[in-house]
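Structure first, sequence second, as always.
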C-alpha cells in the first residue's frame, strides 16, 4: 500500500502558501489565483506567477513559516504507523520546498519522502519550477504524474488531500480520503471517498484497509 498525501490544508490545518502570498506578495496575486480557480491557469503556472511577486529573502519567509505552523493532530502517529506497517508514505505537494522543508524540520520529520515545487530566490522574486518523476520540467499535472508513477509499483494507492489541485489525482486513486474543498468536489462528482478531521481519524480508517 502507498499513501500519496498533500501538504497545505492536509498535513497542516492552515494553508501556508496562501499566508505567504497574503503577507508578502507585491501585486495582484488574487487575480492570478482567480484565473487558476476558474481553469485558465494550472496550479503550477499560477504558483510560478504568484511567487514571482514575493521579493523577501528566504530566511525572512522561513521565520514567518515557523511562527505559523499548525500541523493537523495525529500526523506523527500516522506516519509512525505507516513506517511500522510497510506502508510507503509520500508527500506530493504543489507547495514549495522552502516552506515545506522548514515545517518538517521544525517537527523533526525531515526524513520523509517529498516531491514538491522547487524554488530559486532572486532579488526580483522567487523562481518556481516543477519536475516530473523522470526529471522533466513541467507546468501541469504534477500530482497525477507522481500518482501514475507510484501506481507502477503495483500497490494499492490511497490519496489524501484537501483542494482543487488534488482532484485529478484523487479521481485515479484506489481509495481517497478528503477534507475541505476536495471533499465537496468529489461528492459533486459522486466519487466514492472517505472524510477525516485529523490524522487520528485517518489512522483508524486506514487500519481498516490494511
Amino acid at each position: 500500500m502507498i499513501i500519496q498525501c498533500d501538504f497545505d490544508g492536509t498535513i497542516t490545518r492552515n494553508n501556508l502558501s496562501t499566508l505567504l502570498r497574503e503577507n508578502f506578495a507585491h501585486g495582484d496575486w488574487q487575480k492570478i489565483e482567480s484565473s487558476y480557480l476558474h481553469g485558465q491557469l494550472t496550479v503550477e503556472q499560477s504558483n510560478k506567477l504568484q511567487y514571482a511577486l514575493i521579493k523577501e529573502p528566504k530566511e525572512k519567509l522561513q521565520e514567518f513559516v515557523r511562527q505559523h505552523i499548525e500541523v493537523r493532530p495525529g500526523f506523527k502517529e500516522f506516519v509512525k504507523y505507516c513506517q511500522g506497517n510497510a506502508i510507503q508514505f509520500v508527500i506530493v505537494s504543489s507547495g514549495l520546498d522552502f516552506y515545506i522543508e522548514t515545517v518538517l524540520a521544525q517537527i523533526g520529520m525531515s526524513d520523509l519522502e517529498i516531491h514538491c515545487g522547487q524554488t530559486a530566490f532572486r532579488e526580483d522574486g522567487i523562481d518556481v519550477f516543477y519536475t516530473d518523476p523522470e526529471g522533466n520540467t513541467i507546468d501541469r499535472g504534477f500530482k497525477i504524474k507522481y500518482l501514475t508513477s507510484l501506481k507502477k509499483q503495483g500497490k494499492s494507492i490511497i490519496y489524501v488531500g484537501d483542494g482543487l489541485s488534488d482532484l485529478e489525482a484523487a479521481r485515479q486513486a484506489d481509495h481517497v480520503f478528503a477534507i475541505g474543498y476536495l471533499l465537496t468536489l468529489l461528492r459533486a462528482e459522486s466519487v466514492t471517498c472517505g472524510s477525516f478531521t485529523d490524522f487520528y481519524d485517518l489512522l483508524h480508517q486506514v487500519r481498516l484497509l490494511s
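Margin note: The longest strand covers residues 113-122.
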